[in-house]
Amino acid sequence: MTARLTLCADESRAAGEDPIGTAPHWAEVTVLELDVPVWAQLRSVDTWTPAQSAVFAALRGKVESSGAGFGLLMSAPSTPGAPLRVRHYVRGPGGYRRQDYAADLPQTEWARGLHDTLIEPARLRDWETIPAPERGADLHVCTHGTVDAACGRYGVPVHAALRDAGERAWRTGHFGGHRFAATAVDLPSGLLWAHLTPALAVQVARREVSPAEVAGHLRGFAGLSARAQVLDRALLVQHGWDWLTGQRNAEVDGDLVTLTATVAGQTRTYRAAVTDAEPLLLPGSSHKPDRAPVRQYVLGEIEPLPAAPQDPPSL
């Protein structure tokens, strides 16, 4: 009898893995509201129609030409079997801006939602525009246990706790990071979380804990690249949750990260070296014994930079 493998999320926690820098880098995110059985259809590349394959080919071309990544999430709709509905988030001040669209299309037309939001947004005029909620967060919790058992074991109770607490939680298909289960994408803030428990997830959603208390659970801000996420986390701890309300951008030159943020009308710039630490050797899945090096980071001293001089007013 083959020995049962330890869940990859348990291995990650036991090794003391710091999840920072593992959030994907997204300029925009499309969330397709699909019933759980449809998730498998979307993930089954061999069964795609030529039109569906063409959409992903166009998306690859978009990334290669612009360098801007995109997120694709699948979440179960509030009403099973409902026509196709899409939530589209675009990078901007304070994280991402949400806009909802609905069409009189079956969910199997999911490729149309991807094409119209990410490739040819002019076609969104054919969709019904639905006002997005003015307040609150969308917590997309991976519960995709058929992809990895850790996400079923830890994600399902976290999703249930958030829903029971009255938060906007979405049962979501795999988006990467099995070993961080329970893992969640927090929008519009753009934060990704790791190793959430039901109680902690509710506290994070309501910002009832300080950033310092949950820093070890933060995978990073999807609006920045990996090394910049490391510096951004330290500045979030330093400034508190209000840090998320501003516009943050970063330049990365080798190990040197320069991050500029405009919060409450005040612009500040910080610089620090983010170097590689000794990697950890961890499994990438709960279903295979294979292990691979996992990158860890060391943040150097943070240097506040002086504000750029302002041009004198024209007379």
Overall description:
- With 315 residues, the protein is an alpha+beta fold.
- The chain has one domain (8-305).
- 27% of the residues lie in helices and 29% in strands.
- The protein has eight helices and 17 strands.
- The chain has helices spanning 8-15, 36-43, 50-66, 110-119, 149-164, 198-205, 211-214, 226-239, and strands at 28-33, 70-75, 85-92, 95-102, 128-130, 138-142, 168-172, 184-187, 191-193, 218-221, 247-253, 256-263, 266-276, 280-283, 291-294, 297-299, 303-305.
- The strands form four sheets. A five-stranded mixed β-sheet has the order 2-1-3-4-5, covered by helices on one side. The chain has a five-stranded mixed β-sheet with strand order 7-6-8-9-10.
- It is globular, with a radius of gyration of 20 Å.
- The N and C termini lie far apart (85 Å).
- This is Sucrase ferredoxin.
- Pfam families: Suc_Fer-like.
Provide tags for this entry.
8 helices, 5-stranded mixed β-sheet, Sucrase ferredoxin, alpha+beta, 27% helix, 315 residues
In short:
The chain is an alpha+beta fold and 315 residues long. It has helices spanning 8-15, 36-43, 50-66, 110-119, 149-164, 198-205, 211-214, 226-239; strands at 28-33, 70-75, 85-92, 95-102, 128-130, 138-142, 168-172, 184-187, 191-193, 218-221, 247-253, 256-263, 266-276, 280-283, 291-294, 297-299, 303-305.
